[in-house]
Amino acid sequence: MLFWVMLCISGTLGQIDMKDKLFAFPKKSSTSYVQLLPEYPGPFREVTVCMRFHSNLTREYSLFSLATRGRPNAFLLFYYPGPRNQFLLSVDNKDEYYDLQGNDFTEWTSVCATWNSSTLVVWIDGTKYNINAKQKDVQIRADPIIIIGQDQDSYGGRFAASQSFVGEITDINMWNKTLTDENIMDYFAADEMSGNIINWSALNFKVFEDVDIQPYVDPYPCVPI
Question: Which strand (E) or helix (H) includes residue 185?
């Protein structure tokens, strides 16, 4: 564990296989976050992001924040808990809200979000929420900054502690294409799937302030019968 802490303090990490590991965000903050470094700088006309997380927060929080110059919400995953119980997917600064039912993100939850010129789809633990895209001929511009743990209100900054993530996140992957329904279900089944833009098994990232790298133990392991 000391080795990981020393690496985190140093700031920049090399390419690391994060399988069976997670990012732990222990407390509310406006300075603690992880920057994910993409394999390809874009631009993107299709995107899929998948991740697993859990949190005991009862306030709103950001899960995945991709900003480009002039577009702080170029691709944003955001959650509003409590009576509102809405999941936000924002593409090119245009927001779409998904009304959820019966979700409890205090347990480990798998989420995938896909976008192309015709559809916006959010999957939560195998449940599909589909919306026809309102924006046509849109692309996510090149040179994104991708942040986990904070919501970017500008290109790489203007974080608000009131929207910070507290909890644990693992298995983040991103593709520059729309995954099929079968691909998404494979991800939920914990098959080995690696993104070509963000690859959890060969992750390039920087850690800032109070974020820990810890072992991840699958809470729902497959047990042979």
Answer: helix 181-188
The answer to whether the CB of 165 falls within 8 A of the CB of 122 is: no
Q: Determine the pLDDT at residue 4.
A: 45
Provide the strand spans (E) within the chain. 21-25, 33-36, 47-54, 61-68, 71-80, 86-91, 94-99, 109-115, 119-124, 127-132, 145-148, 167-175, 205-208, 212-215
Tens digit of each residue's pLDDT (9 = 90 or more) over 82-130 = 888 999 999 999 999 999 877 779 999 999 999 998 889 999 998 999 8
Q: Amino acid letter at 27?
A: K
Is the sign of the CA dihedral 152, 57, 103, 183 positive or negative?
positive
* pLDDT reading at 183 higher than 50: yes
pLDDT at res. 102 = 76
Beta-carbon neighbour count of residue 117 at 10 Å? 13
Burial, 93: exposed, middle or buried (Cβ in 10 Å; 0-12, 13-18, 19+)? middle
* Sign of the CA dihedral with 122 first, then 69, 204, and 28 last: negative
Q: Which amino acid makes up residue 37? A: L
DSSP character for 155?
T
Q: Which of 182, 170, 172 is nearest to 219 (CA)?
A: 170
Tell me if the pTM is above 0.85: yes
Instruction: Single out the residue of 166, 212, 216, 209 nearest to residue 190, CA to CA.
Output: 216
Estimate to the nearest angstrom the gap between the alpha carbon of 176 and the chain centroid: 14
